[in-house]
Amino acid sequence: MRVMGVDPGLTRCGLSVIQSGRGRQVTALDVDVVRTPSDDPLALRLLTISDTVEHWMDTHLPDVVAIERVFANNNANTAMGTAQAGGVIALAAAKRGIDVHFHTPSEVKAAVTGNGRADKAQVTTMITKILALQAKPTPADAADALALAICHCWRAPMIARMAAAEALAAEQKRTYQARLKAKQVSRSAP
């Protein structure tokens, strides 16, 4: 499975692509950070991110895109910009029929370090070890993008099993309700 990991942001948007292998084996294929000047208009910044992400998707052909879920931030403007960048990325993936999954920072940290409260230095150290990189990825947005992709690769089997279980439960519920309805109809028939 080829996963594009994205650490969304307006000023710095981390992008990565990794390929999963057997078990927990993962290989980094590419990593970069898209930067947009803070004094540029919002629409132009989002366009720059969109154009770059679309180029990456067309070049690397990911099977899935893993994006960091924005759920809280002390700075409302930062949270809004991050959510807008994430939305542009999710839209680009949807246009190409690529599945999108969102992961919280604590999910990602727990997946790669075993600790959902790990700091950025711990995440970067583990990413460097997991991917057998010669040097630590910088800036932190690059490491975070790699961590998101790894997190999704390692969680994808569980996500698939949960989706299959939910689909089976929904089908069983429909079957049960249809049988109940059939019994009610047969009881009310003269």
From TrEMBL:
Required co-factor?
A: Mg(2+)
Q: Which residues form a coiled coil?
A: none
Q: Which PROSITE patterns match?
A: RUVC (PS01321)
InterPro entries the UniProt entry points to: RNaseH-like_sf, RNaseH_sf, X-over_junc_endoDNase_Mg_BS, X-over_junc_endoDNase_RuvC
Biological process terms from the Gene Ontology for this record are:
DNA recombination; DNA repair
- In its keyword annotation, does this UniProt entry include Kinase? no
Q: Which UniProt keywords apply?
A: Cytoplasm, DNA damage, DNA recombination, DNA repair, DNA-binding, Endonuclease, Hydrolase, Magnesium, Metal-binding, Nuclease
State where the protein is found: Cytoplasm
Is Secreted included in the keywords of this UniProt record? no
What's this protein's function?
Answer: The RuvA-RuvB-RuvC complex processes Holliday junction (HJ) DNA during genetic recombination and DNA repair. Endonuclease that resolves HJ intermediates. Cleaves cruciform DNA by making single-stranded nicks across the HJ at symmetrical positions within the homologous arms, yielding a 5'-phosphate and a 3'-hydroxyl group; requires a central core of homology in the junction. The consensus cleavage sequence is 5'-(A/T)TT(C/G)-3'. Cleavage occurs on the 3'-side of the TT dinucleotide at the point of strand exchange.
The record ties this protein, via HAMAP family, to: RuvC
Query: What assembly does the database describe for this protein?
Result: Homodimer which binds Holliday junction (HJ) DNA. The HJ becomes 2-fold symmetrical on binding to RuvC with unstacked arms; it has a different conformation from HJ DNA in complex with RuvA. In the full resolvosome a probable DNA-RuvA(4)-RuvB(12)-RuvC(2) complex forms which resolves the HJ.
Assigned protein family: Belongs to the RuvC family.
**Protein name in the entry:** Crossover junction endodeoxyribonuclease RuvC
Species of origin reads Mycolicibacterium grossiae
Q: Which gene encodes it?
A: ruvC
